[in-house]
Design a protein that fits this description.
The complex is a heterodimer of chains A (89) and B (296).
Chain A lengths: L15 H39 L1 H29 L5
Helix pairs in contact in A: 1-2
Chain B lengths: L1 E2 L4 E2 L2 H18 L4 H10 L4 H25 L5 H26 L4 H33 L11 H5 L9 E4 L4 E5 H18 L4 H12 L3 H25 L5 H21 L5 H8 L1 H13 L3
Antiparallel strand pairs in B: 1-2, 3-4
The chains are: A mainly alpha (89), B mainly alpha (296).
Chain lengths: 89, 296
């Protein structure tokens, strides 16, 4: 009947830590998002536009790298902040 | 804000919120969420030719965030994910070729649309039916609160296929399974992804659970790992055709990053059958959206 011999991950019956994590993450993210819009996107926009017009192959490499790097950095940033604040994650 | 690549004015906060919503779904259910993000992107004014490629790009980043979180929770079976990729990539390519063939009939929208609706409806109804039965059975039989299935025969049958080489999947708790079964699932879901222009997570998650016998939590994490590769591959091919606005994708990823983490953490608070029951609603919503687009 069980679909595996391994147990699923431990489940926390209390939603409080999750809700605290969510609120904290949102609080951290709002200034990060605002800063990102003004600092990074405006600068990167010109670079990506010129790449897009010059060479789609180079643009494709830059695009996938940008997405991967931003994904990894976002995850690292929030995980580090949550660890620092001592919240379970 | 003006996005010069797709030549569109779009509200970056709206894009971030879209990413956030789709990110929660992705982190919780292990799906790309293209069925929802696509129409929402179109609604914000992104041209249709940029919608699919841009969505794939943001999906790649979001899946990286969610997979790392799921991996920390022990929910990613890397061996299973890597083997599925062997089937997924040719599946996507053949699916894309099929689209070219169907396109010549002049009814591509209807053929793809109705195929999509049928597959989504079957998956949604079956997953919903099975999970409701399982939840009821857990209550009446007082089964332990772990991941259980109500359809043992489907779960066990493929394990009888002993076509060598056989491998074990310790993370998923599968003792012995033919590599070909795993590659076939990768191929089939890749075919659907290529043919229907979607990520394929809505089909992969139930197949991993019901056919291979992977626990739901591990299926969610492994599916996300698979999406990194398949969506990343799609991002590159669409970028080469000039159909990706990376600035929009990066903006969406800001919201998706936090949403994916919240979704992934949320899986800790629900048992496998409840996740499957909630998941079963998604394909039905997607089928309704496609029917609406087809003029119903």
């Amino acid at each position: 009947m069980s679909d595996s011999s391994t147990s699923p991950p431990k489940q926390d019956p209390s939603l409080q830590p999750l809700l605290r994590s969510i609120l904290l993450e949102i609080a951290i993210y709002v200034p990060v998002v605002a800063a990102y819009y003004w600092l990074i996107l405006r600068y990167a926009s010109d670079k990506f536009t010129s790449l897009y017009q010059d060479s789609l192959a180079r643009y494709a490499i830059a695009a996938i790298l940008a997405i991967v790097i931003q994904g990894v950095l976002l995850e690292m940033l929030t995980s580090w902040l949550l660890r620092r604040f001592g919240l379970r994650h | 804000m003006f996005f010069p690549l797709s030549q569109v004015f779009a509200n970056p906060f709206a894009l971030t919120v879209i990413g956030f919503i789709v990110g929660i779904l992705g982190g919780f259910f292990g799906v790309g969420g293209g069925f929802l993000a696509g129409p929402l992107l179109f609604w914000t004014g992104v041209p249709m030719n940029f919608v699919v490629g841009t969505d794939l790009a943001h999906m790649t980043g979001k899946s990286i965030v969610a997979t790392r979180r799921h991996r920390a929770l022990g929910n990613v079976d890397l061996r299973l994910g890597l083997l599925m990729i062997v089937g997924t990539i040719p599946g996507i390519e053949i699916g894309a070729q099929l689209i070219e063939i169907v396109d010549k009939t002049g009814h591509v929208d209807y053929i793809v649309g109705y195929t999509y609706v049928v597959i989504l409806t079957v998956i949604g109804l079956f997953t919903g039916w099975e999970s409701i039965r399982t939840i009821r059975k857990k209550r009446t039989d007082r089964l332990p609160a772990k991941d259980v299935l109500d359809i043992e025969h489907i779960e066990r049958r493929p394990r009888l296929f002993k076509i060598p080489p056989l491998i074990s999947l310790p993370v998923s708790g599968v003792e012995s399974i033919s590599i070909w079964s795993i590659i076939f699932i990768g191929f089939f879901t890749g075919l659907l992804a290529g043919f229907l222009g979607v990520g394929g997570g809505f089909a992969r998650l139930p197949m991993l659970v019901y056919i291979i016998g992977v626990p739901t939590h591990v299926a969610v994490g492994t599916d996300l790992f698979e999406i990194i590769i398949s969506a990343g591959y799609g991002t590159i091919t669409h970028s080469l055709k000039g159909n990706v606005d990376i600035m929009i994708a990066l903006t969406m990823l800001l919201g998706a990053g936090i949403g994916a983490q919240i979704g992934a953490m949320g899986t800790r608070y629900f048992s496998g059958p409840v996740i499957r029951l909630l998941f079963s609603i998604l394909p039905l919503i997607a089928a309704a959206l496609v029917l609406l687009r087809l003029g119903f």
